[in-house]
């Protein structure tokens, strides 16, 4: 995935917000947590380029371990159970769900080590053949990029619908 992580995080968070009866946090904060969470696993690209000199596949870093995002989600659920009115639990939960969604989307055509650190084996639903140079052109010309465009279109339609139905409050 190249362009659909932030839109997918937006869709996840707005879905959650629209179904919640009440939230102890502003809607905009919850949506921001979902978007940032859906992008957070790729923050490792700084380490990948600046420190690691591209020696290790960045999906092998801890930020791309599903166990990290599942643990954060479990922590948020336990926190929410202990303190039902905690805004932090909601923010952490939506953030962690965004990170986990990133893992799912990366698994479509990218290797994700779903059982790391216990098993050193990547999983991907489909493989993108290396036919073109530069390397990223293979992804943009693969059918999976249509899925990314569909996610972006869905997010844009959701944003427009939400703006139309709540023009004054906007984020609430």
Mean pLDDT level: 94
Strand coverage percent: under 5%
Can you tell me the overall shape? globular
- Rg to the nearest angstrom? 17 Å
Which parts are unreliable, with pLDDT below 50 for 5 consecutive residues or more? 168-172
Tell me the number of strands: 0
Helix-and-strand structural type: mainly alpha
Biggest sheet character:
none
SSE ordering? HHHHHHH
Oligomer, anyone? single chain
Helix content: 55-70%
Q: How many H/I helical runs?
A: 7
End-to-end Cα distance, whole Å, is: 29 Å
Kindly summarize this structure in a few lines:
With 172 residues, this protein is mainly α. The protein is built from 7 helices and no strands. 59% of the residues lie in helices and 0% in strands.
Topology of helices and strands:
Elements: H1 5-19, H2 27-39, H3 45-50, H4 66-82, H5 87-109, H6 136-140, H7 144-165
Describe the fold and architecture.
It is a single chain. The chain is mainly alpha-helical. It has helices at residues 5-19, 27-39, 45-50, 66-82, 87-109, 136-140, 144-165. The model is unreliable at 168-172 (pLDDT under 50).
